Amino acid sequence: xxxxxxxxxxxxxxxxxxxxxxxxxxxxxxxxxxxxxxxxxxxxxxxxxxxxxxxxxxxxxxxxxxxxxxxxxxxxxxxxxxxxxxxxxxxxxxxxxxxxxxxxxxxxxxxxxxxxxxxxxxxxxxxxxxxxxxxxxxxxxxxxxxxxxxxxxxxxxxxxxxxxxxxxxxxxxxxxxxxxxxxxxxxxxxxxxxxxxxxxxxxxxxxxxxxxxxxxxxxxxxxxxxxxxxxxxxxxxxxxxxxxxxxxxxxxxxxxxxxxxxxxxxxxxxxxxxxxxxxxxxxxxxxxxxxxxxxxxxxxxxxxxxxxxxxxxxxxxxxxxxxxxxxxxxxxxxxxxxxxxxxxxxxxxxxxxxxxxxxxxx
Length: 362
Known about the structure:
The chain is an alpha+beta fold and 362 residues long. Among the domains are: 117-175, no CATH class; 198-360, Glutaredoxin. Helices cover 56% and strands 10% of the residues. The chain contains 14 helices and 9 strands. It has helices at 14-33, 62-68, 70-115, 119-132, 136-145, 154-175, 217-221, 223-232, 253-265, 269-278, 285-294, 299-306, 311-324, 346-360; strands spanning 4-5, 51-55, 58-61, 198-200, 206-212, 237-243, 329-330, 332-335, 338-341. Strands 4-6-5-8-9 form a 5-stranded mixed β-sheet. A two-stranded antiparallel ribbon has the order 1-7. β2 (51-55) and β3 (58-61) form a beta hairpin.
């Protein structure tokens, strides 16, 4: 597990989201399209001032129902957004895989024709040849590289590993000597960095927007990866921080986020940011004030800022913006809008950064 979620630590599958979405649509369809006394189905939602019920002649407004159900309606809206984005992501991934399959099939057909063989015969013979070329050293290297991610013993898995390595080589052999271009843009969303605190060059061609929670252990574990990216790409990458406190599982996250907003206003966000993550287990109000002083902030100014109206709403605005792009756990990274969930490894993040730099250079 490499991410914390807003409701619990186990992220629901996209299939479950789709099922919930289907139920939601069915309920909405029943409520909105249900005929009344043969009248035409109601197309629009009632206005907030509309009377929705009466009890002993006393009107009950639709606005009262909206107010009472606000929390549940908010959860349903989050589920709808998650489902819409998941479907869009799955659709894009399906098209990418389909294009790769089309290219691979055409290369196989051309190779078989050149060899004067049927496609199935050529493929079978090529796979046998490549699998025979997989050495014990190749298998050893695979198990070392994937240590901790493999379930099962070597004796049981070795035949599958040899086949897998042969399949990888099969693709390489197919593509060797061919110029292949995939022109479909990677899946990305419109992500607004807003006025979030920034590290890195302001004019950098690659922007990483991070939604994070100061009480989230996975957010702390991804920090070395982010710091390394900024060190390796000092002029090419900038990092923007946005708040996403997970209220249900992190009781001090909201207060820490508000402290971060005040630290930003007072010019010492990153100093307090580092202290809060370094000392993640001590984030009570008194702890935050102590950290603010150690971060170089004026104690009175910091306390006065925390008491201002509007600080909490700025945190909520960040959180709402995150929900709109599908954030439901932390950390959530977007590299020029390309989503990466969880505490990703440096290699994974750097690969996306390199791809974005290549695209930016034309």
